[in-house]
Amino acid sequence: MFKKILVPYDGSYHSERALEAAIEIAKNDKAAIHVIYAYDKLPEYLGEPNLQEVLNRVLTAARGLVEGAAQHAHAHGIEVTTDVLEGPAADAILRAAETEGFDLIVIGSRGLGHLKGLLIGSVSERVVRQAKTPVMIMR
Fold this sequence. Notes:
The protein is an alpha/beta fold and 139 residues long.
């Protein structure tokens, strides 16, 4: 039924549960998983060389997260790709889902995001409202 599954991943408990659910679905459907991490654009006022140093740290940590998730899925015999995207998480997820033609998004109900998620709505809520593909939310 599903061939391409998108899994936004930030290392939180709920994103771990989403990854596990995506692995099970991928095993049953012989689907591939694409694990992504989205980070907010860094403020320009950091200036150089600070901006580059912070960006390098963010990218190193993000790549470590998605690679760890990919290794876990790969250990279950799943074909996995990864990506690290800049931008607000919901925007990056929705953009990836639409441009890459995923059949399913499996996302955690809560992540390691900012306090503003409590004030203006969570990433998963926005993805459910705006995605053109089916979304599974894991608690």
